[in-house]
Design a protein that fits this description.
Blueprint lengths: L5 H4 L19 H32 L5 H25 L5 H36 L6 H23 L2 E10 L10 E5 L10 H14 L3 E5 L10 H5 L11 E4 L10 H9 L3 E2 L3 E5 L2 E5 L8 H10 L8 E4 L6 H6 L4 E4 L10 H9 L5 E5 L2 E5 L16 E10 L1
Parallel strand pairs: 1-12, 2-3, 3-4, 4-5, 7-8, 8-9, 9-11
Antiparallel strand pairs: 2-12, 6-7, 10-11
């Protein structure tokens, strides 16, 4: 990985490389119950949504014959169950057939979201037309709105595939002289799995090598959490050539099952895994905490206390999600870098993400003495669509305040 300082290579041996499937051993019974409740809830919502689209379409196209109605009904039900069924398959199988099924189902969920807006707009448009006494054929109203929805969806697929390089400058108090003007690349939420994997990872590493940062921070969710060849997906990182290498912590998707296999694959590719610890590079304190240890506030607080962060000196905390921010601020962290939110990817997800994370959903913001930067991530989860957000890698230039 280029001229990596010895401190980035000195880490304890990691566990067996096998990425484990969810089992009763690493997925406790209460979590299985919660998991299946979630599956049933999501399945119910998707089925109702598709049946709503079916009902809207046939009402606005009254000339459809019996055969067409039956075919559309079957398609609506199949589409309604496709994403959950495909998602469950990805937990057990990784082959071309499952990948194709999952990609089609995931893309449809994204398109369906915009079609729901189109269906609602069609009903509103029909109501307005009737109140206004306008003689507009219902099918023309629906066709117009649904065509617009599909165009937006196609744009979303194309936009999600285009990873941008964005640049920001962060001013930190007491930044070591050696770090003035240096650049860190923040990469998160690659979600390597059935949609994006080895080829996508190669392209990301190539973009990083062209950008020539001094160090790379990988803030979790490198993997999607489904069955995948973790070693093959991580291997492109071995071609990374930056002075200080890359540092990695897990996200919530690596915590879906035993994370040991992911950690081994990443470390085997030459990336330094920060196992809830602090290191120092040319006077800059860099702390990495895995997602699982940030869920419990007391565990998280204890780990930051154990890291012995010196508030008088500049520090960077790599952690997956922009939550528990008062704990990081209390620990004296200068800058936290995170991902996780995706910005919600597209409406209505973007509205929900904004509601949950507020201003910290994306960009550089301050909480007391703590600066927080959240990026949108380079990949996607579920539907490979982005509307109103972009796939990004962020280059952070450090300056002293």
């Amino acid at each position: 990985m280029g001229d990596t300082p010895p401190s980035l290579n000195s880490q304890a041996p990691l566990p067996t490389p096998a990425v484990q499937k969810p089992t009763s051993e690493n997925f406790p019974r209460f979590r299985w119950r919660r998991f299946w409740r979630l599956v049933l809830t999501v399945q119910s919502i998707l089925l109702v949504a598709n049946l709503f689209l079916y009902a809207t379409w046939i009402v606005f196209h009254p000339s459809l014959g019996t055969t067409a109605l039956v075919v559309l009904g079957i398609v609506a039900v199949a589409a309604g169950v496709s994403f959950v069924a495909a998602s469950l398959l990805t937990w057990s199988y990784f082959n071309w057939l499952v990948r194709v099924i999952y990609i089609i189902a995931a893309v449809w969920v994204g398109l369906m979201s915009f079609c729901i807006f189109a269906a609602c707009a069609s009903w509103i448009g029909l109501g307005v037309a009737r109140v206004a006494g306008l003689e507009i054929a219902p099918e023309l109203i629906a066709d117009g709105f649904f065509s617009a929805a599909l165009l937006v969806g196609v744009y979303g697929v194309i936009n999600a595939a285009m990873v941008r390089i964005n640049r920001i400058t962060v001013k930190l108090p007491n930044l070591p002289d050696a770090w003035r003007g240096r650049v860190a690349a923040l990469v998160s939420d690659l979600h390597l799995g059935h949609i994006r994997n080895v080829g996508f990872m190669r392209r990301v590493v190539a973009r990083l090598n062209l950008a020539r940062p001094d160090i790379v921070f990988i803030a979790g969710d490198m993997y999607d959490g489904t069955v995948v060849d973790a070693d093959a997906c991580a291997q492109p990182w071995s071609a990374l050539s930056v002075p200080f290498g890359a540092l990695y912590v897990t996200g919530n998707h690596e915590e879906f099952s035993n994370r040991a296999g992911y950690l081994h694959a990443v470390a085997s590719a030459g990336i330094r895994v920060l196992n809830d610890e602090k290191i120092e590079l040319d006077g800059l304190q860099i702390i990495g905490i895995h997602y699982g240890e940030t869920v419990d506030p007391e565990v998280y607080r204890a780990l930051l206390r154990k890291a012995a962060i010196s508030p008088e000196r500049a520090s960077v905390l790599i952690v997956h999600a922009p939550h528990r921010l008062p704990i990081a601020e209390e620990a004296g962290v200068s800058l936290q870098v995170s991902g996780h939110t995706h910005g919600g990817q597209f409406p209505p997800g973007s509205w929900v993400a904004k509601r949950v994370y507020g201003e910290f959903v994306h960009g550089l913001h301050r909480l007391g003495k703590l600066l927080v930067f959240t990026n949108w991530g380079a990949g996607t989860w579920g539907p490979p669509l982005r509307v109103g957000t972009n796939a990004e890698i962020v280059l952070i230039t450090f300056e002293t305040s």
